[in-house]
Recover the amino acids of this structure.
């Protein structure tokens, strides 16, 4: 096999493993998903899962990446009038997670974080590194990590109430109505008074 | 056995079943907890669990009752200046759930709701009947159910971020600091503009 051919085969194998892992983590949770089961579902040898991903924790981390790219979201939120920052954030995030595949990824992440300490620890590190630290740097204020975690608390609560528990009328309100309702909350958490 | 003695025995049996159920639901989740396992942990015959509670759903419902009594909370929040309603709500709820036993009950409820559709459905009905409907009646406004579910989204998100995922610095901030930070959010959801 040529070098290019081998590289394509490796990419396909990695993707098959990631697809199988995403489905099993969503269905069974982190604890009850074994690397052996992922390998079987992907139709590959278990040793290949370890070869490509190193550990179950790293495999999980690589498949639960947030559907919203912070490198795109953060400049979008911070550019423009600060009093509209919460609205831009809410509309952007809701725009993404109203789409079924993205919603499934987000609810799988929240479910895993809620029920499994190991998954929660992985997500805590992910949130801190990929969201809180960049937001803190972008905001350039001392209490930015607290502000970012308050934003996170409202967003994760919205995912729980609207998509997972499906409390009415929040579950069937339009995305625009929800975005307008939470926008001032997010704006204040980002740059308003906190006490 | 006298009538009083029998009643005391029944109360003790009910409590032993409830204690065992609370512990098993918290540890294993709703799906993986059987009535047989609850009976074994309580040291009673399985038929007694059915006799006292009727079904697994009703047993779950009776042990996951929120640690905050809406009949006490709602008047406390609604009496006094409306612009301080969110502060009264935040301080009251945090005052209760900072206490370890209550926190354990709340996190068990959120975990169950996040990971198990059957538990989520039970909690959705519970929230609607015991929280949203009384709040709607007390507020006396047309969009009260939406307002109450927005309050719920921030509170459940706070439980996720502070107690379950434990994102810093929200996890180690003082209860007073957290209450002050979220109070204006709750006040606006209760009585402020939503768009």
């Amino acid at each position: 096999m040529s070098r290019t051919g081998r590289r394509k085969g490796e990419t396909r194998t990695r993707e098959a493993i990631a697809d199988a892992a995403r489905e099993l983590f969503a269905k069974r949770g982190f604890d009850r998903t074994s690397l052996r089961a992922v390998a079987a579902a992907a139709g590959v040898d278990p040793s290949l899962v370890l070869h490509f991903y190193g550990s179950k924790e790293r495999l999980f981390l690589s498949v639960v990446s947030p559907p919203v790219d912070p490198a795109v979201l953060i400049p979008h939120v911070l550019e423009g009038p600060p009093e509209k920052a919460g609205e831009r954030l809410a509309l952007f995030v809701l725009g993404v997670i109203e789409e079924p595949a993205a919603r499934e990824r987000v609810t799988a992440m929240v479910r895993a974080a809620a029920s499994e300490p190991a998954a929660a620890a992985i997500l805590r590190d992910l949130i801190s590194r990929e969201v809180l630290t960049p937001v803190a740097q972008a905001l350039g204020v001392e209490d930015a990590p607290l502000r970012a975690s308050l934003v996170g608390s409202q967003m994760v609560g919205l995912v729980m109430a609207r998509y997972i528990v499906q409390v009415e009328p929040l579950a069937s309100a339009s995305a625009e109505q929800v975005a307008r309702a939470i926008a001032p909350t997010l704006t204040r958490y980002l740059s308003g008074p906190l006490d």
